[in-house]
Amino acid sequence: MSWHDRTIPAATTIAPAPALPVHSALQLTRGGNLAQIVLEGQTYTLRITRQGKLILTK
Fold it and tell me: Which residues make Cβ contacts (< 8 Å) with residue 36, sequence separation at least 6?
């Protein structure tokens, strides 16, 4: 049997994942470097560092 005589299995169809929401850190901080985010009564602080990294603290 040569390679062109072999049956190739059909591709499995996978539904695309729903798009994730995208938020700009600069918009959340209104151009600054700090924002507060509340989740289930807990307040977290989002900080943009001088190096452009994000830190989230409780």
Answer: 43, 44, 45, 46
